[in-house]
């Protein structure tokens, strides 16, 4: 049955301090890893917390103390607005978490480091970046070389790219908000040397003119809608104004394939796509109560986010599976749950366009989280495996720094 509930923590479990700007990612099973953030002092955190959800409906927090094998640092520096992305291991075994960027709010320091946390050994290492081959020297001055890594940033959007790497968009750097898209891919052999896992960055938006991309922004919400399709909503622009557009970037084509205003300005909110978990639930036998919540699961989607041929009016990937929560709407802290849906509109003879809409989700007030922004969210399979759950952690509002956990079951 769909709806909200507040997670109860079992006896003996520690609880993280209240914070905003933390990052979280879903691991294998029903586990979520959270990192960093800051309170309103502001005091930044460098802690890692593992939340395990039990079959009894309760949760257990464990503080993770990684084995540090950092070549240039003696410790993991505290930060807020970083991203952490889980890459599953071979055969679904324990994978690796990539930590990128962030800011130390008191000093204003912005990070550009990429770290790797192995979830089998809990070792944290630097990632060794492979250098791109430079052209041979000639009599003519060599052309300017493109950057080989993204500039430091915080409050960006990140996701799992092509099932084995990391994609990032936007955020705020030393010179303000950004609008670039980068992908990191580990070495093909998964080599690990003395300084950490190796791989390389590639700028996916490097071939686009400035007018072919969206407005620069930070604190947008985003999620993957396919292996190479990144969806972004809102954020705060370079002029400080709130944005309300929906964007889709096709990583394989290296271009933005959708840009449309929704009329819903928002920043510091979250977006989660439950389609993957619902698709997996569809493969399971129906429960005794009928087809279950996954009966309305997603249609197959291509990298641009459009569904393949067939199926009525052509809803976009897993219509009804992308959920947005909370944030700041320009007037106050929001506490609403929004559902992203797509429809095809007739534009002329034989021409139809894709249109995105955000609609409020009606849910009982009992168990619902209070309004907040700068919270973290991830998607897990439900306890019975027939649906998906959106798990919210922390955030801040006008009164307090939060550390509670709320779960919305689809």
Automatic annotation (TrEMBL):
Gene3D superfamilies: Kelch-type beta propeller (2.120.10.80). Residues 1-21, 132-156, 282-313 are annotated as: Disordered. Residues 140-150 have a biased composition (Pro residues). InterPro entries: Kelch-typ_b-propeller. Residues 282-306 have a biased composition (Low complexity). This is Galactose oxidase.
